[in-house]
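Please produce the structure of this protein holding zinc ion.
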Amino acid sequence: MWECALCRKIMRKNSGLHRTIRTKSGHYRVAGFCSQCAGRRDAEEMKKTAWTTGLLAVGLSLLTGVAAYSFMANW
Ligand SMILES: [Zn+2]
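Below is the modeled complex.
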């Protein structure tokens, strides 16, 4: 028997999912989640990844714009 690291729901053995989480002390450890919490975590991670990718794309296009602009200004 074990409990979910997020909602503390008591789980039967082998019925949970394992995810690497970051603890308050800054260390990474593997924690057991119930399927609901693991799903929610995965969705959050996906959102974060989408954000980072989006920001990178915006930053790159801005950089390209600035580079093109300075090129034009020096013309
Ligand atoms: Zn849970």
